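Form P-L/3: holo structure prediction, ligand zinc ion.
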Amino acid sequence: MGEYKICKRCIMDTTSDPNLILDENGVCNYCHDFDAVAKKMEYKKQQGTKYLESVFNKIKEDGKGKEYDCLLGISGGVDSSYLAYLAKQYGLRVLAVHVDAGWNSELAVQNIQSMCSKLGYDLHTVVIDWPTMKELQRAYMFSGMAKVDVPQDHCFVAATNHMIKKFHTKYVLRGDNYATEGILSKAYQYPAGDWINIKGIYKQCGRGKISLKKYPHENFFKRYISIGEWKSVTIVRPLDYIDYSKKMAIETLEREFGWKYYGGKHYESRFTKFFQETYLPQRYGWDKRRDHISSLIVGGEMTREEGLREMATPPSTEQEMEEEKDYVLKKLDITEEEWKKILTLPYKTEKDYPNSENLYQFCRKVKHIFIRDK
Ligand SMILES: [Zn+2]
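OUTPUT (holo model):
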């Protein structure tokens, strides 16, 4: 472990990324990356509603004669909920898709249902087979890796992609946005799409009780080689074209839908809450709030002082965290002794298991040659 460093502009530090680079003014590489992209984002915002109107009109035009104009993945979180509201303002006929991997918080379910019924959207919920999900999730917990939330991420994307094909939608609306997610730690990053990796980890760390047949997945070839098919799907990120802020979104949702905030980014999943509040801090000393808060600071939604103050306050009480941990462990059949063992397992990465890293690297190189800058 090197010496502790923290950025003077945002609050990224060496716990959130051990490879953090500070310039001579004490400003980190994430801030510099943010500034570089911010220029592009400013241009998008200038195009703003005019651009959105033209895109949405095109979506409606292409949707004529079809059941839906576009698909929107809805988690019950702030961004996707606000996007559902925005799409209605423009009269889009939305197919709302929710993937239930067994960890939904009650509030998230309420948010999704009340929003969809008030907006008049058809809601399709894909329920992941729980025994399969449980065994895979459990295997990850014993893998010794940081990103134990991959089983959730992978099936969210795969199941949504299945729905795109099923309903022949040509457009997908996505809620990710630069204003509130501009900073994301690059530490421990690995593509959640690597099916070889997921299967390998399951084989080595799982109990082998169940096959992964029922788990929605995508292999490398489906994702990359059949790209011809995917070219016909356009992904639109409308929140980058409006003056978007977390505060504004929450206020609007509460006012219009009686929507309820659940107290943290991605806490719509109880596993993610445990992963971010307990697993990462206890095993890696990494508090993901640092990324989220840094995003809000550089995005101008929060001052650095406010951010530091929020970081100094625990996200939940000790008792709440203990209860949340017990809930997750029980659901995954993990005993208290096993949990203690998990916290002291040798540190591993995705590359310690079978993986498609070489294939990914090759594709990144090819992509870099052909697509310089979008
Ligand atoms: Zn910074």
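COMMENT: Residues 29-63 form the longest helix (35 residues).
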